[in-house]
Amino acid sequence: MKNCLSTLSIPLVTLLILTSCGGDNKQAQQGPPPAPAVSVVEATTGSAVYYDEYPATVTPLNEVQIFPQVSGYISGIFFQEGQVVSKGQKLYEIDRQQYQAAYDEAVANVNVAEANLNRAQKDADRYETLAKQDAIARQVVDNAEAALQSAKMQLAAAKANVSRVATSLNYATIKAPLTGTIGISQVKLGAAVSPGQTLLNTISAEDPIAVDIAVDETDIPRFVRFQNRKHNDSTFVFVLPDGTAYKASGRIAIIDRAVDPQTGTLKIRLVFNNKQKMLKSGMNGNVRVLNSESGQRLLIPYKAVTEQMSEYFVYVLGDSSKVSQRKVQLGNRIGANVIVKEGVREGDKIVTEGIQKLREGAVVKVADGAGAPQSTSSAAAPSATGQTR
């Protein structure tokens, strides 16, 4: 029995040895894993003209709401809605009959007061002469002088009343307080109006016109520098609601006095020429502001960037086909590219495809067709405010 086991054990050991050798041969035949294939581009300097965008609202530099100052019924409208009216031009008329009658009555009262004063003056003069001759009692003279003073006061009161009713009569005719475009009338002929309560119309100056934006407090020094420029340029472009750019460029007119503590923003008022009346009060759009970092900048494709813990990295191809990971500081995105402020230099070969398979020091195989990022000019889409990285 022992001989049988010994006989069987020799082939079994031999089989195990042969199997082990066969496995080692298979691994040797496979060899090390192939180098991952990647695509690379060179970091190049290109034109990067771009804008920051701010939500904006069109507002007139001067606007007046017209309210009546006397009550009555609208008896006349003397303008065409939407037209430009001149300062002092007659716009509305409130029924003048009651005010004209009050004025005529006040004038008549002045005439009566003047006649009474004239009579009192004569009586006082006559009694004063008689008093010098001791031909009349002193009390009569005193009464005459008191009547004279009363007549003078009554005349003054009558004249003041004329001024008051004349003002009401003038208010019955409503005139334009400034030169500007008048809107659609809020009242029709025959409508009853009340002083200070019934809105008649609104007049606003449209050329030039203002555009208001709110900027973050960190941008204040930048806009102060813009304001100090002596010449206008294309720094500020208003984008209409349909997405087209308004042809005339703007300039800073006013920087508000204080930052809003609730929002941390400051209001900036820009001024645009508006000869074609294309910009209307209340219109919403965006203002593109030329970014001070525009110009010749180092660009790489944005897809080459990876993010780790709010930091940004790229893989750079070095000697011996090895890649190394570098931390980069990014600027604005310009189309498919992004500005690199720090971390790579012009001419560095940046990996754009196959990044997921890479690790520090990995040996790679560069695929054919590697190129360079396309340069981006002013035709590129503007960057949104606050998205600069």
Short description:
The chain is α+β, with helices and mostly antiparallel strands.
Can you describe this structure?
The chain has 389 residues and is an alpha+beta fold. The protein is built from four helices and 24 strands. It has helices spanning 2-30, 97-132, 138-171, 220-227; strands at residues 37-42, 44-48, 51-59, 63-66, 72-77, 84-85, 90-94, 173-175, 180-182, 192-193, 201-204, 209-216, 236-239, 251-255, 265-272, 284-290, 295-301, 306-308, 311-317, 323-334, 337-342, 349-353, 365-366, 383-384. The strands form four sheets. Strands 1, 2, 17, 18, 19, 20, 21, 22 and 23 form a nine-stranded mixed beta sheet that branches. Strand 18 and strand 19 (311-317) form a beta hairpin. The longest helix has 36 residues, at 97-132. 25% of the residues are buried. The model is unreliable at 1-19 and 374-389 (pLDDT under 50).
